[in-house]
Inverse folding.
């Protein structure tokens, strides 16, 4: 492929090839030196993926073991995480599968009641955008999820993240068309950046660069995972003495809702709150601030 073809494939016609810090960007809101962005993934899979192989020769393929993990997340884990966030008086962006609005609407409404932002995580975690054969298929699922969330909460939905997150070549244009203000589809920059899609501006608030997901940390074991997360925070906080930095932590209701992983989140928040100049933010807070500084 030629450099021009690569640039088109990478969508550098929309996304900046080299995101830069705006000249006037000297701090986060309130003079903070470090931003900590919290993304809570509240997902549902219509057909749960097996967490371990089904028995040899199995005649019945539906995996109730994997279903139970998702059910635990919405029945128990979600509420435990809400309490952890309340205990530290911090707010998250809760990325919701549209299907959850039909199956467990009480959890979505509770997140709204507690002041968290509600954003779209497409319709069904079992169907990723990469399987869509046309922009129309992806658009239909995207708008269905957005409408379900807006109908339930009565508020506009301004944030979006694909499952994975793995957007398609069509996702950015569809997000702009749908009126989203921010996307968490990209893990490619230390700072947010503005994406111009045919005159419509979205902010890439970032996913977990720099940062982590609870899936990353759980695989290490909770103790080692906590050490990793705290070390990342401390290194970035040290860097923030020279220039403002951000850290994103993404956690799932069915993963971090387990007691030991909820304790990890609790310890991380307590550690971060002991440092002066830390701004805890939702995706919408980050996006609105960045549109101002990048104007």
């Amino acid at each position: 492929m030629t450099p021009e073809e690569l640039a088109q494939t990478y969508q550098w016609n929309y996304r900046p090839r080299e995101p830069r810090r705006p000249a006037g960007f000297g701090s986060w809101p309130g003079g903070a030196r470090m931003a900590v962005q919290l993304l809570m993934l509240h997902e549902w899979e219509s057909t749960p993926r097996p967490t371990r192989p089904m028995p040899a020769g199995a005649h019945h393929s539906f995996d109730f073991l994997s279903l139970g993990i998702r059910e635990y997340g919405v029945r128990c884990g979600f509420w435990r995480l809400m309490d952890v966030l309340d205990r530290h008086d911090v707010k998250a962006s809760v990325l919701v599968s549209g299907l959850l609005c039909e199956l467990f609407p009480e959890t979505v409404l509770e997140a709204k009641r507690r002041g968290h932002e509600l954003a779209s995580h497409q319709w069904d975690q079992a169907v990723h955008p990469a399987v869509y054969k046309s922009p129309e298929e992806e658009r239909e699922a995207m708008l269905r999820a957005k409408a379900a969330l807006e109908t339930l909460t009565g508020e506009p939905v301004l944030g979006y993240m694909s499952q994975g997150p793995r957007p398609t070549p069509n996702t950015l244009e569809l997000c702009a068309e749908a009126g989203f203000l921010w996307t968490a589809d990209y893990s490619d920059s230390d700072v947010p950046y503005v994406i111009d899609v045919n005159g419509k501006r979205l902010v890439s608030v970032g996913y977990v660069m720099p940062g982590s997901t609870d899936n990353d940390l759980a695989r290490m074991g909770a103790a080692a995972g906590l050490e990793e997360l705290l070390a990342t925070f401390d290194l970035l906080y040290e860097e923030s003495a020279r220039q403002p930095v951000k850290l994103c932590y993404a956690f799932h209701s069915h993963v971090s809702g387990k007691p030991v992983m909820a304790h990890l989140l609790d310890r991380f928040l307590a550690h971060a709150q002991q440092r002066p100049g830390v701004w805890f933010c939702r995706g919408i807070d980050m996006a609105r601030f960045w549109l101002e500084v990048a104007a």
In short: The two ends are 34 Å apart (CA to CA). The chain has one domain: 32-47+64-293.
